[in-house]
Specification:
two-stranded antiparallel ribbon, 10 helices, Rossmann fold, 11 strands
């Protein structure tokens, strides 16, 4: 499946800089990385993707192997055959799977606050089903939508994330494939069995939020097995949405990682 892509770069690219590809997390979309794209697009090509069932991409069944193939197909279609991959949460798992399935595509890999294992958006399984069951009225304003979402989501920041996925006004509806996402939640929260010997030997950086629990010591052995050259950095005071909560700190880590290319 070809994914919707926000493709930004300098007016006169040098052709030497490796492109950067951003992959969002559950219920997000490519434009969530706009802060970083705007800063980096002055000097190199940047591509922010909408994964299937998200943003403006098409809908369909989801698992990490399939989503990684979507990314691979889309990048090839865009003429990108090697890139620095930056993925958050579900996008981080997709980036990891891309690196394992197509290592030649991935020059370097940055994974934001997720590990290769069970975990990610702890309330996601139940939440997705409850969101899919919501009944929209004939007309819906942003304030009314926030009130409706508050019946199933208590955290304002999560509601703000979800509001971007609703077409408001007359005949409101979900823009995202909420039913497909709900059906795929066991795969999204989980992590597939990786055959022995299948590794990604490129530079891999895991960036954890200090207040998050999605990267834990029990994950380190699998991280080392699959990504033997991995390093881990922690952003103090950040939770799971490390890039949104601490954008300047995350940008500094990302910039340093890119410069090592």
């Amino acid at each position: 499946m070809l994914l919707h892509a926000l493709d930004r770069g300098p007016e006169n690219p040098s052709g030497n800089a490796t492109p950067i590809v951003f992959i969002h997390g559950l219920f997000g979309r490519g434009r969530n990385f706009g802060f970083f794209q705007r800063r980096l697009a002055d000097t190199r090509r940047t591509i922010a993707l909408d994964l299937r069932n998200h943003g403006e991409s098409l809908h369909g069944p989801m698992d990490y192997s399939t989503m990684a193939e979507d990314v691979y197909e889309t990048l090839n279609h865009l003429g990108v055959h090697s890139a620095i991959i930056v993925g958050h949460s579900m996008g981080g798992k997709t980036g990891m799977m891309l690196a394992l399935q197509h290592p030649s595509m991935v020059v370097r890999l940055l994974v934001a606050d997720i590990a290769p294992g069970e975990g990610g958006f702890a309330q996601g399984h139940d939440l997705a089903a409850r969101l899919a069951a919501l009944q929209f009225p004939e007309h819906l304003s942003r304030v009314e939508a926030d009130t409706l979402l508050a019946t199933v989501i208590s955290e304002p920041e999560v509601r703000n994330l979800m509001l971007q996925n609703i077409e408001l006004g007359e005949h409101p509806h979900w823009q995202i494939g909420i039913s497909e996402i709900a059906m795929a939640m066991p795969q999204i929260i989980g992590w597939p069995d990786i055959p022995d010997g299948e590794t990604y030997d490129g530079p891999t950086l895991f960036v954890a939020g200090q207040r998050s629990h999605y990267i834990a010591p029990e994950n380190y052995p699998v991280m080392k097995k699959l990504f033997p050259r991995y390093t881990l950095k922690t952003i103090e005071g950040a939770g799971h949405w490390v890039h949104a909560e601490k954008p300047n700190e995350f940008y500094e880590i990302l910039s340093d990682f890119i410069k090592e290319t």
